[in-house]
């Protein structure tokens, strides 16, 4: 007792915390641990049960993606699915999920390995140092550095040495991971698959002066780079077109719903009863409703007639504007080169002598990644907007401190109830209840507060004027992490220490020495919050991610109750989820910062941080392989941002450690202070060198990668010098790639070529260049560097691409119905008119013609320097010699009709089709004809008998003409070629849909019935046997890299 009293007196004299009564942190800790463990077990048990119920939610990547990136079916056992994702090797994982997801997983794996090592070192060393024969603090605080008495300064050497080891290990690991990422990114960018995409050789040039904003000037400037210019798109912003297209896109689903309600009114129990009572007369009900923008205002109108008339009018206006309107070029342009070398060389060059002119330039912009609404913003508007968003973000951070402080104060209920008198009744509650409140509510409340942030930050980032969706994601990532660091890490640490010291400050006075000593003692005590925070995030967070409770509930809700029309059903059942790394990555980096900050101050946090990263690594590995699919991959550019952000946590931990040593005001800690300062300086140099070393490498491709003296394998490993190999013709044609190595033969062939004259004739020839390098599409008369483009004065009407001859017209306009035989042999009802568009149209250049694409990707220059006719391409509208009303929807996908289509005929006999097909799809609103509670066999997708091989054939079937069309307009504003989204209607037994098709097509509206059926018994629509929704073929292929 005497020893304990002496220790307590020393502790008080040294200004350390004097706890009044037992520290409730142990009770809160055990309550939170028990509660969260039980919740985690419950969530995991729920997942093992429901994962077999809904395949769309829990494993859509086993059937909704191409075969080369598809994952095998998960075993149906309770636990057998756990090891499925770990059977996938790293190389295969990278090929399937993309570099963004792969580097996200590598960050988690790196963090897990680091903190497991930290745990094995710190727990057996620092916990005894903090607890045995030290201070008299209670509970979890006894395990922190704050429990060490002043005269036990020698114990702090252990904390200092381990801190140095941890920091060196973390910096070294981050450096190695950046090296690995650089290799992976270079291999990704030099791969054959990526080299064939438009973004590999295309750059965006901004702030172009008016005098240079034309194809000829840009061609003259940029054609000097290796390989020369292939295509030029002058960006345009057709305001009126954009407005009309948006209105039309909003009206098409409304018309679909109105038509669906009208058709289904002839089916169901009420319709059968009406037929019996009225001698077989159908009870067709035309949907009526108000169309005024003001709710409950205006007279009710026939919705079908109203929407039909308005869409028909919009179709004509949009068509006319697309053919005649020229909105003028903006101050930016996309320029595509023949080689990656040319694109990466151009984007690193200073082009214009005036400041902020023709700069900045961007490379590796996917067509799906373009933010068209921000293309019309000049650099000064962008700078002003970014200054405004910076001010708004700062204001949000300052204002958000008030609710965050209140939430964090709940972790100290005793102090809170003393200061807020009306909460005194909480003191009468049982300790177990108060423990749950203190251990669970603060981190839960903090998580809720932070959940609404990403929405606001995304709006702000988009307003800044970024031209890429991935750039917006990266901007959100930076803002969100900064917000988390300030409001979660720093504010919680400071406010936690403040509330812990408030009572002692009132008792001992607010002298400087008292404040300093109290903060030195109680700042480590804030770790109690972060231990429970890491516990909550590590136990419940990963399993909630697995369960996907919100998507599951919404899927069931929409499928059963809200999704009625074929498109609504498809939107629920046919689309894949994607991950917003700008929102998902910052919490991972924040946990790294929390772990490194408290690794030596409160080592008890280390096991929970290790568990957090290990479990999240397993969960996200599973999710990326079976659930998520990213439409656009930035090539892992989020990873360098995350690495730099982890240095924030390292610096905070070092500065905090320095502050703790200084606050103890003991001369014997001078060596500790000096070593900590040197560690901070060393980390700063390492951070600076890391940025200097890797910033250029992760943005651009090094020139040496195109050299024949340097080889890069599929993992990005570089071999210099002596290992030569023979270059084959395949290397050149594939963009310099051969097997696992890369060659610059195509680049050298282009740079060694003599300049071409305006007529396209060669002035000289290098005999060392293979002749095939000078050919294009086996046409000897074409050239790789075409003549200077000029805009043809005439503006011809639309020449529309219709795909190959094997792809049938679907619904045209006519007064009789015929049956077309599709590739699968299925018969599809389609009214036709004589003179249907053929697959070959005049005016569309053949694959052998050499041309340059100018504004909106148009063909501007042909062989011999003559300008080709100015055309825009689209395939929903007629040839120029046909009247407008004869529109035809040309299907660019093969028709994979479900079994019911094969026997379908117009019939007034009830249930004839359904009896013949065994009721396929009856009662189901699943987009693939499967019940939510059933799983398909391994050999086939349950899509009305459609096999996986059929799907792969359709998904991979992109003929040369379609591919050329997609590439031609890849960087054209969508409004300039926007086609009316087909009105998607379900086929019904009585043939009502055929009458509606006839009326709509006569009004000039495109209609499709792909895979959509109406069950006559339930009067519900179902969708079967299709790969993508009508009208979404191009985007479908672009998203999946076809």
From TrEMBL:
- Cellular component terms per the entry's GO annotation: plasma membrane
Lineage per the UniProt record: Eukaryota, Fungi, Fungi incertae sedis, Mucoromycota, Mortierellomycotina
The family database entries (Pfam families) matched by this protein are listed as: PHM7_cyt, PHM7_ext, RSN1_7TM, RSN1_TM
The source's superkingdom equals Eukaryota
* Name of the protein: DUF221-domain-containing protein
Q: Which residues form a coiled coil?
A: none
Q: Give residue ranges for domain CSC1/OSCA1-like 7TM region.
A: 385-661
Listed A to Z, the keywords are: Membrane, Transmembrane, Transmembrane helix, Transport
Disordered as annotated region, ranges: 717-817, 837-862, 907-943
Domain CSC1/OSCA1-like cytosolic, which positions?
Answer: 201-374
Taxonomic source organism: Actinomortierella ambigua
């Amino acid at each position: 007792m005497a020893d304990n009293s002496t220790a307590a007196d020393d502790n008080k004299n040294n200004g350390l915390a004097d706890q009044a009564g037992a520290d409730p942190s142990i009770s809160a800790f055990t309550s939170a641990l028990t509660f969260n463990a039980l919740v985690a077990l419950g969530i995991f048990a729920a997942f093992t049960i429901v994962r077999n119920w809904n395949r769309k939610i829990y494993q859509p990547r086993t059937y909704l993606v191409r075969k080369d990136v598809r994952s095998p079916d998960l075993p149906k056992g309770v636990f057998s699915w756990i090891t499925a994702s770990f059977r996938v090797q790293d190389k295969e994982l990278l090929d399937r999920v993309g570099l963004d997801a792969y580097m996200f997983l590598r960050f988690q794996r790196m963090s897990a390995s680091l903190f497991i090592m930290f745990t094995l070192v710190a727990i057996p060393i620092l916990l005894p140092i903090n607890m045995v024969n030290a201070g008299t603090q209670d509970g979890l605080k006894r395990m922190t550095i704050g429990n060490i008495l002043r005269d036990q300064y020698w114990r702090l050497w252990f904390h200092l040495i381990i801190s140095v080891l941890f920091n060196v290990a973390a910096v070294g690991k981050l450096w190695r991971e950046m090296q690995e990422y650089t290799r992976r990114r270079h291999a990704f960018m030099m791969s054959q698959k990526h080299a064939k995409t438009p973004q590999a050789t295309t750059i965006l040039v901004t702030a172009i002066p008016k005098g240079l904003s034309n194809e000829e000037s840009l061609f003259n400037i940029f054609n000097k780079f290796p390989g020369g210019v292939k295509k030029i798109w002058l960006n345009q912003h057709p305001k009126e077109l954009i407005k009309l297209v948006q209105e039309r896109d909003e009206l098409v689903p409304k018309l679909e719903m109105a038509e669906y309600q009208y058709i289904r009114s002839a089916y169901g129990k009420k319709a059968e009863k009406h037929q019996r009572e009225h001698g077989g007369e159908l009870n067709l009900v035309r949907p009526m409703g108000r169309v005024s923008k003001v709710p409950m205002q205006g007279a009710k109108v026939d919705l079908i007639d109203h929407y039909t008339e308005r869409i028909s009018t919009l179709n004509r206006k949009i068509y006319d504007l697309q053919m005649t309107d020229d909105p003028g070029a903006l101050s930016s342009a996309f320029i595509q080169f023949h080689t990656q070398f040319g694109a990466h060389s151009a984007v690193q060059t200073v082009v214009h002598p005036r400041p902020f002119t023709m700069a900045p330039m961007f490379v590796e912009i996917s067509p799906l990644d373009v933010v068209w609404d921000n293309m019309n913003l000049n650099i000064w508007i962008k700078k002003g907007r970014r200054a405004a968003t910076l001010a708004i973000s700062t204001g949000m951070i300052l204002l958000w401190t008030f609710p965050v402080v209140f939430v964090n104060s709940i972790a100290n209920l005793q102090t809170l109830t003393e200061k807020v008198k009306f909460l005194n009744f909480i003191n009468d509650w049982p300790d177990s209840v108060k423990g749950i409140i203190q251990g669970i509510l603060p981190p839960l409340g903090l998580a809720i507060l932070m959940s609404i942030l990403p929405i606001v930050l995304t709006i702000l980032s988009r307003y800044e004027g970024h031209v890429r969706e991935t750039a917006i994601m990266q901007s959100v990532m930076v803002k969100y992490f900064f917000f988390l660091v300030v409001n979660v890490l720093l504010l919680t640490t400071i406010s936690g220490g403040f509330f812990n010291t408030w009572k002692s400050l009132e008792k001992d006075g607010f002298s400087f020495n008292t404040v300093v000593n109290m903060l030195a003692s109680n700042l480590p005590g804030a770790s109690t919050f972060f231990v429970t925070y890491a516990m909550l995030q590590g136990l419940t967070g990963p399993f909630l991610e697995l369960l996907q409770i919100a998507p599951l509930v919404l899927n069931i809700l929409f499928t059963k109750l809200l999704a009625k029309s074929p498109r609504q059903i498809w939107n629920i059942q046919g689309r894949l989820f994607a991950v917003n790394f700008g929102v998902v990555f910052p919490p991972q980096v924040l946990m790294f910062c929390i772990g490194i900050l408290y690794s030596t101050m409160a080592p008890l946090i280390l096991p929970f941080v290790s568990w957090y990263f290990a479990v999240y690594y397993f969960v996200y590995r599973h999710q990326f392989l079976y659930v998520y699919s990213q439409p656009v991959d930035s090539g892992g550019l989020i990873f360098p941002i995350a690495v730099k952000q982890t240095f924030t946590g390292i610096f905070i931990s070092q500065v905090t450690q320095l502050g703790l040593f200084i606050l103890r005001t003991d001369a014997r800690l001078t060596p500790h202070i000096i070593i900590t300062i040197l560690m901070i300086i060393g980390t700063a140099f390492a951070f600076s060198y890391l940025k200097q070393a890797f910033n250029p490498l992760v943005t651009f491709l090094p020139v040496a990668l195109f050299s024949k003296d340097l080889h890069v394998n599929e993992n990005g490993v570089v071999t210099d010098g002596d290992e030569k190999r023979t270059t084959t013709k395949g290397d050149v044609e594939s963009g310099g790639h051969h097997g696992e190595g890369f060659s610059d033969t195509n680049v050298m062939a282009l740079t060694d070529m003599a300049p071409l004259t305006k007529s396209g004739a060669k002035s000289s020839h290098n005999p060392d260049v293979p002749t095939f390098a000078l050919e294009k599409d086996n046409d000897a008369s074409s050239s790789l560097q075409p003549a200077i483009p000029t805009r043809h004065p005439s503006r011809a009407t639309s020449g529309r691409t219709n795909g190959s001859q094997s792809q049938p017209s679907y619904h045209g306009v006519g007064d009789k119905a015929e049956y077309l035989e599709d590739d699968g042999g299925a018969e599809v009802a389609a009214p036709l008119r004589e003179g249907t568009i053929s697959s070959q149209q005049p005016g569309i250049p053949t694959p052998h013609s050499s041309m340059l694409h100018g504004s909106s990707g148009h063909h501007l220059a042909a062989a011999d320097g003559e300008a080709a006719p100015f055309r825009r391409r689209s395939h929903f509208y007629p040839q120029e010699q046909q009247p407008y009303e004869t529109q035809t929807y040309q299907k660019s996908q093969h028709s994979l009709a479900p079994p019911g289509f094969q026997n379908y005929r117009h019939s007034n006999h009830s249930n004839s089709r359904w009896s013949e097909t065994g009721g396929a799809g009856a009662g189901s609103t699943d987009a693939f004809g499967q019940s939510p509670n059933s799983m398909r066999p391994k050999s086939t997708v349950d899509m009305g008998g459609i096999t996986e091989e059929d799907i792969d054939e359709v998904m991979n079937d992109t003929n040369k003409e379609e591919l050329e069309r997609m590439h031609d307009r890849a960087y054209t504003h969508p409004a300039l070629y926007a086609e009316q989204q087909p009105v998607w209607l379900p086929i019904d037994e009585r043939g009502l849909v055929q009458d509606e098709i006839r009326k709509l097509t006569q009004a000039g509206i495109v209609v499709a019935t792909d895979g959509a059926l109406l069950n006559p018994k339930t009067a519900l629509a179902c969708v079967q046997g299709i790969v993508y929704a009508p009208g979404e073929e191009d985007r479908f292929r672009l998203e999946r890299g076809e």
